[in-house]
């Protein structure tokens, strides 16, 4: 590999990592806004989502499943909730990647104080589809309090 090719490969790797990190932030933003259409568009055409709210394959089915199972996120001063995503570990392999991301759910509590409600992680498989990084599979785990993902969800 020439020096120019090596530089281009390193640049592509950095651009891929940045786009995947943006994907994680877009996911959080759309989830908190309860824009399930935009949220579902972050998945591949055959992308899979599984977690406590259910399992689905494909953007339309993911959107429908989450709209049926997630309550609205009320504006302030209601019990608004926000997700925080952090500590991504990303392993790139060409047009595929695996990742693990920590997430926390914060709710507005009594006296307008933030309350940590849940803490968990996502196990992700990502792929470049139509020139953009998207979720091929996202599995949401709740670590505190511990809620194991059901066997049915694991098979999705």
Give a quick precis of the structure.
With about 160 residues, the protein is α+β, with helices and mostly antiparallel strands.
What distinguishing features does this structure have?
156 residues, alpha+beta, single chain, Nuclear Transport Factor 2, Chain: A
Descriptive notes:
The chain is α+β, with helices and mostly antiparallel strands and 156 residues long. The chain has one domain: Nuclear Transport Factor 2, Chain: A. The chain is built from 4 helices and 6 strands; from the N terminus they run H-H-E-E-H-E-E-E-E-H. It has a 6-stranded mixed beta sheet. Strand 1 and strand 2 form a beta hairpin. The longest helix has 31 residues. The chain is globular and about 60 Å long. It starts with a helix and ends with a helix. The C terminus is likely disordered.
């Amino acid at each position: 590999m020439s020096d120019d090719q090596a530089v281009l490969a390193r640049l592509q790797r950095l651009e891929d990592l940045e786009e995947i990190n943006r994907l994680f932030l877009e996911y959080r933003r759309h989830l908190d806004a309860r824009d399930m259409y935009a949220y579902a568009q972050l998945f591949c055409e055959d992308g899979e989502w599984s977690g406590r709210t259910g399992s689905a394959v494909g953007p339309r089915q993911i959107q429908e499943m989450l709209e049926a199972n997630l309550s609205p996120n009320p504006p302030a001063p209601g019990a608004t909730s926000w997700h925080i995503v952090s500590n991504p570990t990303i392993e790139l392999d060409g047009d595929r990647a695996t990742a693990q991301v920590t997430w926390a759910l914060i709710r507005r509590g009594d006296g307008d104080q933030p309350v940590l409600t849940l803490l968990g992680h996502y196990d992700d498989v990502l792929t470049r589809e139509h020139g953009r990084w998207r979720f091929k599979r996202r599995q949401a785990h709740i670590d505190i309090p511990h809620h194991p993902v059901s066997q049915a969800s694991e098979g999705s």
